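Support reply, case 0932

Customer input (verbatim):
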Amino acid sequence: MTIESPFMGRKRGLLGIAGGLAVCWAMAGAPPAVAGLWPESVDGKALPTLAPMVEKVLPGVVSIAAATRVQVPENPLFNDPFFRQFFDLPQRRAPKDRVARSLGSGVVVDAGKGYILTNHHVIDKAEQVTVRLNDGRSLTAKLVGSDPETDIALLQVSPEKLTALPVGDSDQVRVGDFVVAVGNPFGLGGTVTSGIVSALGRSGLGIEGYEDFIQTDASINPGNSGGALVNLRGELVGLNTAILAKGGGNVGIGFAIPANMVRRIMEQLAEYGEVRRGLLGVQTQDLTPDLAAALELKDEDGALIAKVVAGSAAEQAGLRSGDVIVGVNGRSVRGESHLRNIIGLLRVGERVNLTYIRDKKRQEAAATVTEPMVQRSKGGDVHPLMEGAVLEAANGGVMVQGVRRNTLAARLGLQPGDMIESVNQQPVEDLDSLKSALERDKRSIQLDIRRGEATIHFSYKLR
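Our regenerated output:
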C-alpha cells in the first residue's frame, strides 16, 4: 500500500490523460439531435447538471506554483583530497544548487483579506509562491503560517477581485453524499471531477500527525493537493490532500481534511502564524471488545485512559486511569485517535467539558487545556545508543521527532513518531528519566515503543 500526496513537481512533466465525467439518467426516448449541443430539456423537463454550481466555485479555486532552491548532489570523488590534487582541482568548490518547481492547488477563503488555503507540503521550504487565478491573473503570495501536523498552510495575496468559497459544516457530511473535487491536476488547472463520500473519520494512515479524513472516489491526482472538495451547494467541505495509489494516479481512493478542522487551524494561523495546541495530559488507547466486556460497557466507542500525567489538566479535573472518555464538548468520541484530534484542535487555555464512564456510570468533568512543557534534545545527549535521533519530551513521555539514516538510532529501528514508553522496564516520563533508565544497564537495553496503536519491544546488546 502506498499513500501519496497529490501534488506534483515540475520534473514529472505534463502527462497525457484520458477520461471524463459522465452521469446517466434513465429517460424515455432519445434526446433530439442538436449539432454540438446537449439538450437542456427532454419532454419539457430540465436535465440535471452541476454547471451552475461549478461556475460559482471555479473562481475560488486557484493553481499554486512553488519554487524551492535545492542543492545538487556532488560526486563523492570531489570530496577526496587525493582526487582533487591528481586532477588539479580547486580545494574547495561552492555547492551547486538548482530551483525545483512544484504544482498544487489552493482555495480562496477570505476575499477581503486575500487568504488562500493549501497544503503545507505544497509550499514547504518554498522561496517563492505564485498563485494563478481562474481568470488568468498571476499573483505573488506570502506565507501567513503553516501547520505540518495537519498539512495545512495559509497564504495571502493582494485582495483584488477575488472570489471566496463559503465554508460548509463538515460534521453534516454523510457517507453517500455527492461531492465535487476542483483543482490543478497535472498542471491542467481548473479541473472538476465528481463522486461521493466513501467514508468518514479515516485515520491511522500515517499521512499526518492529526488524521480525520473524508474519503472520496472523486478523482484526485497529482496537483490536486490543497484543492477544494465541495458539496452540491458549492460549499467547501474538505481540503484535498492525499491519494492511495501504487502508481501515483487516481484509483478511486482520495482523502480530504474536513472543513471544520481546516477552519480551526486557519483561525490560529491567521492570528499567530502557527498552531498553539493545548494538552489534556492523558495517554489513551482504543477500547477492544475484550476491554469493553471487562468494563461491562455496551459498545466500544470511547478512549480508555491508560495513564494520567501528574499535575496535568486531566488530573486537576479528577480523571483517573481506567476511565473511558466518551464525549468532548457534547461530541461523541469514537476512539483514541479521534480524541487526540479533538484535543489537538483546542487552543491553550480553552475550557473543555468531558464526559467519561467510571464504574459503569457516566460522569462529567471540566478541564482547561494547558500548554505542553516541551524539552528537546539530540539523542546522543541522552545516551550514545540514541545517536542520530531527535527526541522531544512533552507531558507524559518522550517522542522520536526524527531519525538520521545510517545511525545507531536508525539501526535500532526507531522511527519518527515513536513514543518511548519504558526502558529496561522503567517508565519514561521525560528526557531525564529516559537518560537515567538507559544508564542503568551496561550490558543490554530493552525498549518498549508505542507506534500508532501497537506496542513494539526492542532489545539491544551493548558491547
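We compared this against your earlier run and they match. Two observations from our side: Confidence is low (pLDDT under 50) at residues 10-36. The chain is about 15% helix and 35% strand. Please reopen the case if you see a mismatch on your end.
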